[in-house]
Every structure is written in structure tokens, then in C-alpha cells.
Amino acid sequence: MFELTRRNNNHVNPYNPFREMEELERAFFSNPFGSIFGNSSLAEFNTDVTDEGDHYLLEADLPGFDKKDITLDINGDILTVHAERHSKVEEKDKKDKVIRMERSYGSYSRQYDISGVKADEIKAKYDNGVLKLTLPKKEETLPASKRLEIE
Predict the structure, then answer these.
(1) Which residue pairs, CB below 8 angstroms and at least 24 apart, start in 35-44?
(2) Residue ranges per domain, the chain?
(3) Residue 112's CB: how many other CB atoms inside 10 A?
(4) pLDDT tens, 51-76?
(5) CA atoms of 79 and 119, how far apart (whole Å)
(6) Does domain 44-136 have CATH number 2.60.40.790?
(7) 3-state SS string over 109-142?
(8) What is the H or E stretch that residue 72 is in?
(9) How many Å separate Cα 94 from the centre of its chain?
(10) What's the pTM?
(11) DSSP 3-state assignment of 92?
(12) Contact 137, 58 (CB under 8 A)
């Protein structure tokens, strides 16, 4: 299962001595740390947060993760969503059989400010690679009005 590269032999490109440098520059600025830190396409998973009136709905795309590898931690007013994917090629015997590996493995996390949320009532569900968090809003309390006496 090798990757096949399709080539168009009908089109002849004029010689450009700077083509390789331009391609290197384009690759670097589109993904500056991709070659150092691996594939950065999952370095930060994508989320949507919507206001549903009485609660917020946070949906995070975490395809390919097992539910047991996702943790939700609350520390003060910060919710941390952490997911870890383990490589299937950790054994030396299997490593010699791999021809190409493009899927990312590692640890991914994001943090969210939940100061306006009832932290003890958060509900989480993980289904088909999507983590859904229901974040009930705190009741807004208006400051009590007060009349000051003039001395």
C-alpha cells in the first residue's frame, strides 16, 4: 500500500531555480513547527460553543479516541479537556512492518473559562468521535440597590 503520486506529463514547467526555495518557504509558513513537533493537524482539536439559552453546548471533535482516554478536569474556573491517543506501533516487532504512518499520536488538551457555569452540574457525553458538554449557566444576580445617606 504505497502512496502513488499522479503526474501530468502534458504540462512542462519552465525552469525556475528558486522553485524549491519557494516550496520550502510556503511549507514552513503554512505549518512552521510541523516538522519539529510532528503533524500539527491534531495539535489542537476543533470545538464549537453555542449559547442554548439556559446552558452552553460545547462540542469537541475527537475522532479516533477511546472514551477512556479522554479526561475532563475542573480546577477553579478552568475546565480542561485532555485526550491522549497511543501509538499502535510501540513494539519494535510491529515498527519494522510499518510502511507509512500519518496518523497523529500524542496528548491534546484545551482549556475553557467556566466562571459563568454551574460546574457541579456539567454533563458530558462522547459519541461517534464528538464530545458534547452541557454547561448550565449560573443565575445572574443583580447587585442590590442601596441608598446612601449624605452626611
Answers:
(1) 38/104, 38/106, 39/102, 39/104, 41/104, 42/104, 42/106, 42/108, 43/104, 43/108, 44/108, 44/110
(2) 14-42, 44-136
(3) 18
(4) 999 999 999 999 888 899 999 999 99
(5) 9
(6) yes
(7) EEEEECCCECHHHCEEEEECCEEEEEEEECCCCC
(8) strand 70-75
(9) 28
(10) 0.61
(11) helix
(12) no
